[in-house]
Amino acid sequence: MKPNYKNWMPKGMIWGTLAGSIGCLVLTLLFGLSGWLADSTLKTVLVVAFLVITVALACVTLWMALMHRAFSYDGKRQMSRSVIEGVARRVVLPSGGRGLDVGCGSGALAIAVAKCNPQAQVTGIDRWGAEYSSFSKTLCEENALIEGVGDRTSFAKGNAVQLDFPDETFDAVFSNYVYHNIPSRNRQAILLETLRVLKKGGSFAIHDIFSRQKYGDMQAFVQQLIDMGYEHVELIDTTDGLFMTHWEATWMALTGSAILVGKK
Questions:
Q1: Do 255 and 193 meet the contact criterion of CB atoms below 8 Å apart?
Q2: Under a CB-based contact definition with an 8 Å cutoff, are residues 210 and 235 in contact?
Q3: Does some domain include residue 2?
Q4: Cα separation of 30 and 160, whole Å?
Q5: CB neighbours of 137 closer than 8 A, spacing ≥ 6?
Q6: What does the longest C-alpha to C-alpha distance in the chain come to?
């Protein structure tokens, strides 16, 4: 039996956008071919507006479908697998140690880390929002059992903005493509909240879209961590062939992807 890690571009989102495109097309035809509003300026404006929206939604649907294919664990590219395994390889837990996956989704990263660190325990938290309704705690647990790490993983509902753990609880904290999805004017503060639960001497590996627009000056943040006493802090570009090519990052809207690694 194979684990089901779903897809970072859920089919529900694609079908929803496609439905919107078809709906706008129907409205375009209704206004354009019917006698409603006669031949008024308003009729022309409505027809043009709905036609533009139809084309825009159709393009977005195509883009989402291509993303779904690239991210699929069963497809040819399997970018999700490349990223998950790449981040997991950077997480090293001591024997008997504990790791935290913030925004665990379907459990893929937490499980990969558990497989790479057979003497450690891994906890995954997520809010499992409506936009990712196919992801759940139950799915994570089922995948962990299939992968043979059910006894060394646990999953719970949690909030990355305010983690329900005491300071210095974990030997490693890690995450993949989570924080940029959280509405916030200060995502660097969310990073600091994650690092709050990291033990002295513990390590972190956080992969996300660290663009200036989403995070501000990340080089300054790296220096801030160093000034706070963190060791070996580095922001590594993952769009130069490490996890993906520059071209893939561009058309997938993942430009700025990098992994923030270091030690407390």
A1: no
A2: yes
A3: no
A4: 46
A5: 126, 128, 155, 156, 157
A6: 77
**pLDDT tens-digit readout, 72-118:** 998 899 999 999 999 999 999 999 999 999 999 999 999 999 999 99
Q: How far, in whole angstroms, is CA 35 from its chain's centroid?
A: 47
**The domain containing residue 49 runs over which residues?**
11-71
d(CA 64, CA 177): 17
Residue position matching structure tokens 């497809």: 75
CATH code (residue 190): 3.40.50.150
Question: From CA 174, how far away is CA 163, in angstroms rounded?
Answer: 13
The verdict on 213 and 178 lying in the same domain is yes
pTM of the predicted model as reported, rounded to 2 decimal places: 0.91
Compute φ and ψ for 153, nearest 5 degrees: -130, 150
- Concatenate the DSSP letters of all residues of 124-157 into one string: EEE---GGGTT--HHHHHHHHHHTT-GGGEEEEE
| CA proximity to 3, closest of 82, 72, 84, 106 | 106
The edge-to-edge listing of strands for the beta sheet with 121-126 is: 153-157, 121-126, 98-102, 170-176, 198-209, 257-263, 231-237
**CB 172 within 8 Å of CB 97:** yes
Domain count for the chain = 2
